[in-house]
Amino acid sequence: MLGANLAMCCRMIVVMEQVRMIMKSYAFVRSVAPRFLSYKPHSETPPPNEPKFSQYLYFFFAPTLVYRDEYPRTERVRWMVVIRNLVEFALTIFYLTFIWESLVSPIYRVFGTQYLDRMWLVKNIIKTSISGILYLATSNYLLLHTWMNAWAEMLQFADRLFYKDWWNSTTYHMYFRTWNVIVYDWLYTYIYKDMYEIVVPYRMLSATTVFFTSAIVHEYIFAFAFGFFYPVLFILFITGFFIFFVRKTINNNLLIWLTLSLGTSILFSLQTIEFYARLFASSQLLRRPVYTAKLELLKND
């Protein structure tokens, strides 16, 4: 995929879709396989019900990552709701592009073209904290509200609890539970519970496994989207992992917003700096043969 020379957004869409398919496939196998593994032939126990292909197909497109044979359904499709959500989806993409092009990219585009000191980095991390938190909140609205509600309405999927009031969180323990309910349910059902019930009945180990799984997958998405491995997000996840367990110390909504804003700004800044530094370095390498050829011509003259 890196050799296909796709745009960053296209690479991120492809990788996120790949991760979604892997999570859905794992959920399906993990939910269905125990029925057949526990079944003993030539016994009085009736054979398990095999899921139909239509059930798997519906689950594949439904806005959920936890497999069930049946889901609550609405009576009809409200196409005006679908259109409204898709229009909001398109407008939100435009707004995210506006934030990037007007507030983030102009600041860091100069990196690699002139001398910049440490105070420049600190100043711009603070400056991009507002745009970072705007990007975070808008991305949540883009994926978990407009996109998920559009698909839920088209598929008559009645369970619309894709996120909770994460903006009211006073601890990171509450934030991680409410930010993305879809992914949280998958992690709790297939990672946390399996670690606790099958491997070791130790909550700390189960929570650690969930954090590291989430951190690795997020870093995998970012690495392929940007085209290079730069584990800023992974380090921020590990930092959040330690903050997660001091829920009694950090118990303030304003502090949650400040740390989210600062963390998003650090991620924005370092990833963008690395992106433009590599872009500038590659452009210099491409120009070098031209300059070398010109110097050779001047020497010959």
TrEMBL record:
Topological category with respect to the lipid bilayer: Multi-pass membrane protein
Location (main, coarse): endoplasmic reticulum
Alphabetical UniProt keywords: Acyltransferase, Endoplasmic reticulum, Membrane, Transferase, Transmembrane, Transmembrane helix
Native source species: Acromyrmex echinatior (Panamanian leafcutter ant)
One Pfam family here: MBOAT
TM spans (from-to): 89-111, 132-152, 172-192, 204-222, 228-247, 254-277
InterPro entries listed in its UniProt record: MBOAT_fam, Oat_ACAT_DAG_ARE
UniProt record similarity statement: Belongs to the membrane-bound acyltransferase family. Sterol o-acyltransferase subfamily.
Lineage: Eukaryota, Metazoa, Ecdysozoa, Arthropoda, Hexapoda
GO biological-process terms attached to the record: cholesterol metabolic process
One annotated Gene Ontology cellular component of this protein: endoplasmic reticulum membrane
Active site: H218
Domain of life: Eukaryota
One example GO MF annotation: O-acyltransferase activity
Protein name: Sterol O-acyltransferase 2
Protein's cellular compartments: Endoplasmic reticulum membrane
